[in-house]
Amino acid sequence: MVHSLSKAELSELKTSLAGIVGDRVTDGLSVRQHHAHDEGYHAACAPDLVATPRNTGEVAQIVSACAAADCAIVPWGAGTSLEGNALAVNGGVCIDLSQMTEILSMRPEDFRVTVQAGVRRIQLNTGLRSTGLFFPIDPGADATLGGMAATRASGTNAVRYGTMRDNVLGCTVVLADGRIVRTARSAPKSAAGYDLTALLVGSEGTLGIITEVTLRIYPVPDHTIAVVCVFDEVGDAVKASMATIQYGLDVARIEFLDAPMMGAINRFERAAYPEAPTLFLEFHGMESQVKEQFALFEDICAAHRGRIAASASSPEERSALWRARHNALYATRALVPNRRVLITDVCVPVSRLADCLLKAREYLDGSSLRSTIAGHVGDGNFHAFILVDPERPQDVEEAEALHHRMARLAISMDGTCTGEHGVGMGKRDLLREELADAVPVMAAVKAALDPRNIMNPGKILP
Amino acid sequence: MVHSLSKAELSELKTSLAGIVGDRVTDGLSVRQHHAHDEGYHAACAPDLVATPRNTGEVAQIVSACAAADCAIVPWGAGTSLEGNALAVNGGVCIDLSQMTEILSMRPEDFRVTVQAGVRRIQLNTGLRSTGLFFPIDPGADATLGGMAATRASGTNAVRYGTMRDNVLGCTVVLADGRIVRTARSAPKSAAGYDLTALLVGSEGTLGIITEVTLRIYPVPDHTIAVVCVFDEVGDAVKASMATIQYGLDVARIEFLDAPMMGAINRFERAAYPEAPTLFLEFHGMESQVKEQFALFEDICAAHRGRIAASASSPEERSALWRARHNALYATRALVPNRRVLITDVCVPVSRLADCLLKAREYLDGSSLRSTIAGHVGDGNFHAFILVDPERPQDVEEAEALHHRMARLAISMDGTCTGEHGVGMGKRDLLREELADAVPVMAAVKAALDPRNIMNPGKILP
Q: Which of B115, B294, B361, B414 is placed for a possible disulfide with A186 were both Cys, Cβ 3.0 to 4.6 Å?
C-alpha cells in the first residue's frame, strides 16, 4: 500500500528517478512549493519530489519506479486547476508534464492533432494557425491539454463545440504499473470495445497519467460576431440566455456576468462597461448565417428588455471584448488585496438555470463575503467567485458552506456539483450525494486499475 | 463461475423467474429460436430461457436470480445486431427488453428525453413529433434505443449529429449483482467523476444491462435538401465525399453506394437509378444556409466529374429517396434466394478512405462471392455486403477471410475493425490486433464489474 516515504526511501527513489531523467528530478524546496498549490482555495501541500519527464517512455519509467517504492504519484500540468486536482495531499512524486510540449502530428485533412500532454491551449492554436483550423475548448486559463483532458474541462465555446469529453479522440496513458496504453486508433468513430478514452477523460490522474492526447480540431469560422448585451435584471439576462438555447440558435458562446463582476472587470481592465447583468455572446459561421442568428438574438434580447451594448467582428476587437470575460477570476481577486477566491461550479438543466442562479445570488447576498458571478449559461453552468481571507478560518468556513449549499441546490435540481472543474479533493462528499449508486462502481474501476492506490490518491473517491 | 445449467437447475431458475415476471418467462422452443439469431451471418444459438421484464426493477430481480444460479445473462432488444452481439453462445437466460417501451419523460426545453431500453427509434421519433424535436441517430434498422446504446450504434446522420457516444447523456443500468445504478444526472455537462455513461455505451451488455437511456434530441431543421449524385468512377465519388468533409461543409448525411448496390436497389425497389457509384447526401439548416451549402457541394461534385441525379426537399420525396439507402441490406440479400449476408464494418481516417475502399473493392473482385458496398463515407466508415450460402461452409469461410482481410487493411491505416456494429462474437481477435495494450485494461474493468463473467459472456473480450 502507498505510504509516506522515509528520508532514506526518498533519497533512494530520487537516485533511481535521476537514472531516468538526469537532473530533471529535485527535492528542492522552491520547486516543491511551486507545485504545492493550484489556482483554487485549498491549503498548500507540497510533493516530496518533482520529476520532469520529456516523453511517455520517461513517464512510464518514473511510474514503475514509484510503484516499486509504493510511492504516491501526482501529475501536474499548468497548475491552473481549482479543486486541488493536482495537489500532493499525501506527498509523493509530482510528475510535472509541462516540458512535454511537442505537437506530435497535425492531420488537418482529418481534423485532428496529436500533442504531448504539456502542450498548452494557446501554443496549440498558434501552431495550428497556418492550417485554418483551431481547437475551440477554452477554459479561460492557458491550461495544458493533458490537464484539460484529465479534468474534463470545458469553458466558453462548449455550447457549440462540446467539452473535452467530445473532443478527445484518443490518448496515450501510463497506468499504475508503468504500462503504456493507447486507448483508440484514428478512425473518426469506433465501436471497438469499451471506451477507455472516455473513461480516462475526467479521471483526474487517478486511473493513469495521460501523456499524449489526440484532439478534434475545427475550421476557423468564416465569420464571427461577438456581442455584449446588458439587462436591468439578472432574471431577464438568464431568461434571454435560456431562450437563445431553447429556440435552437446556433450560438458558439453565451456567457453571463453579474453586476458585481462587471464592476470588478471595469476596475481591473480600466473599462467602462455598464455595471449591470450582462451577456457576452459569439456566433460562428458563414456570413449570412451569422447575421441571421444575430438578428434572431436581437429579437430575443429586446423581448427580455436587454440592449446591445457592443458588438465586434474583427479578431482584435473580439479579443479585447473576451479579455474582459477571461479575466473574471483575476478581476475578482483584485477587488481586495491578499484574498483567495473560492469558485463554485454548479451545472443544472438549462430549464432550471434562472431558479438556480437567482437562489444562489440570494445565498450570496445573505453572506458577509464579497462575491461575483459568471457562467457558461448556455450549458446551465455558472460560477460564484467568493473572496476569502486565507488568514481568517471563519471566511474559509463560510465560503465552503456557501459552496456546499449551492452544490446541494444544483443536485436538488437534478444537476451536478461540478460542471467542469472536477471533483478533486474538495467535492468527494458531494459526489457521493450526487451519484450515490455510481460511486461504488467508480471505486471498483479504480481498484481494478490501481489496486495499490498510488495514482493521485485522495482525489475523486472517498 | 458461470456454467451450463442442468435440466433441474433450469427448471428451478424458471420457477424463480416466474415469481418475478409471471408468465413472461418461457423455455418454449419457438420463442428461444426467435432469440437465437440476429441479422448477421453467425450460426444460431438459442438461450435456455427467455424472460421479458417490463421495468428496471424486474430486470434487477432477474439478474439477481441468475447471479444466484451462476447462469449467463444475455440482453435482447430488436434482434437487429450484426455481430452476434445478443446471441446466447453458451445458453443461459435471454432478457428480452422489447416490452420496455415507455417514453419515461420528455423535456423538450432541455433537449432531452428518457426512454425505457425497448423503445425503438421510430416510436421515439413518432412520440417526439409534437415537440418539433427529433432523435437523429439512424442505423437503418428500427433498433431499440437500449440496443443502440449498448453497441454504440451510429449510421447515417452521424457526420453531423455524432454517434450514440455523443447522444446518450446518461443511463440506468443493472449490474451483474442486481444493483441498479444511474450513471449521471441531467446537467448538460459534468466533471463529476468517471464517465460511467460512456463506459456503458458500447459495452454490449458485458458490464451491465442498460434499462433506461437519456438521449439528446435536436430541433427538426427548418429546411432539408436531399441529393443524389452519380459518378463514373468509385474513386471520384469517394474523393468528392472526402472533399465535402475536408472543406468543412455542414452536411448531415453523406452516403456512398457502389454500382452493384444501386443495381440491387433498383431490383428490390423497382427503381431506375443509374447503376453507377452514387452519393446520397442531406443538408439540414435554415433555408439560406442549406442553399449555400448545396451550391458549394455542386461545385465539389462537378470538380469530381459527378452529376446531380435527383434532389428533394419535401418530407415525402426525401423519405422515398432514403428508403433506397435504408434497404441496402434487404436489397442485397434479395439478389440471390436463400442467402445470408456478411457485412464488414471498417472505419478509417477520412484521408485514407479512397485508398481503403478501392483496395477493399479489389479484394471483393478477386472473390467468387457476390457483394455490394455502401458506407457512411463522411465518417470514413463503409460496409461490404457479402452474399453467402449458409449451406456451403466454403462460402462462409471465404467471406470471413475477406472480412478479416478488410479489417486488417483498416487497422494498417490506423482505422478500426468496427465503426458501428460492435465486436460481438466475431471480432474479438481483431480487437486484440487493433488495441493490443488496451484489451487487458478492458478485461480488468470487466473482471471488476462482473467477476463471475455472467454478463453476456463470449462477447468483446477473449
A: B414
